[in-house]
Amino acid sequence: MRVALYLLTVLSTILLNLPREKEVKPVEVVRVPDFCEGIVFDHDGDAYISHGKFISRIRPDGKASVWAEGGAPNGHKVLADGTHLVCDPSQHAVLRLDATGKLLGKASAECDGRPLREPNDLTLDAKGGFYFTDPGPYDPEKAAADGTVHYVDPQGKTHVVTQGLAYPNGIVIRPDGKTLLVGESLKNRILSYEIGSDGKVGPMMIFANLPVKQGEQIDNQPDGMCLDAEGNLYVAHFGMGQVQVLDRQGKLVRRYSAGNLSVSNVAFGGPGMDQLYLTGSIGIWDKTEGALFRLDLTGVRGLTILPKKSGLIAATKPGIVGHSHSAEVSGKIHLE
Predict the structure, then answer these.
(1) Is 199 within the bounds of a domain?
(2) I need a labelling partner for 302 at 20 to 30 A (CA). Which of 170, 246, 254, 281 fits?
(3) For 98-129, what is each residue's pLDDT tens digit?
(4) Is residue 10 part of a domain?
């Protein structure tokens, strides 16, 4: 009984740190011509978003400029040495770019001798590796359960860790490094996997089934995700115009307006890590302008996923210093 009361008290305290829905209003930061994705921050506090064939950089003062041009950049992370990993489905690869946006090579392009299909989003682990989703071509009519999740180990080898998913999308690792969370878009749910010592994962568990669209909402597909320091999960719910917050048990505890109806991704930033940034498009994803919005979540602190800056210069061959996730641990990510 005492344990149950203690857990209830802890949970109540966590919930009190989440602002009420009516207290949070989306603030527009910048608008772009197309649906945007891949929000991430570097060591200087600059934000990066993908839209069309471009990646734009937004300075802390709000000034935006094109940083890189490629095929169809999507999910995006920054490593300790200042280089960037970018999922590009049009190039069937996870690319690596230097701090100026120049292409260095491919961090992953095949698995077990087969080319990747359409890498979508990624997350870093503490060992110098990373996980990414590869849902394949988007076809909601077929809703094919042929999506995969991969792990690229510190030696640069790509492994399949789970498959048979209906468009796996957003992906995050809990702060202790023991649990992988994956959004399964075409089944409107979040999946959970226990992570083993070799980076492979255990059996699939359903973490949460999400709400369905209502009224003027046009879809209900979980897209990008992020975590706060308390372990709450923030889900960009595409087509619903909301960021939905799930507690550590998978219970829906908040629904914040996202600004974008077709909200696509989320990331914490700002000096206090209490600002939630959201990408997507104002209306129907391929028919309206894209925009980056910000939610000011007073009392919340986002989980820091940006690894501590290494101060090392990136190389263009195997043996590149990698990153750390919630721990100051260096690793290696290889290029092909």
Answers:
(1) yes
(2) 281
(3) 999 999 999 999 999 999 999 999 999 999 99
(4) no
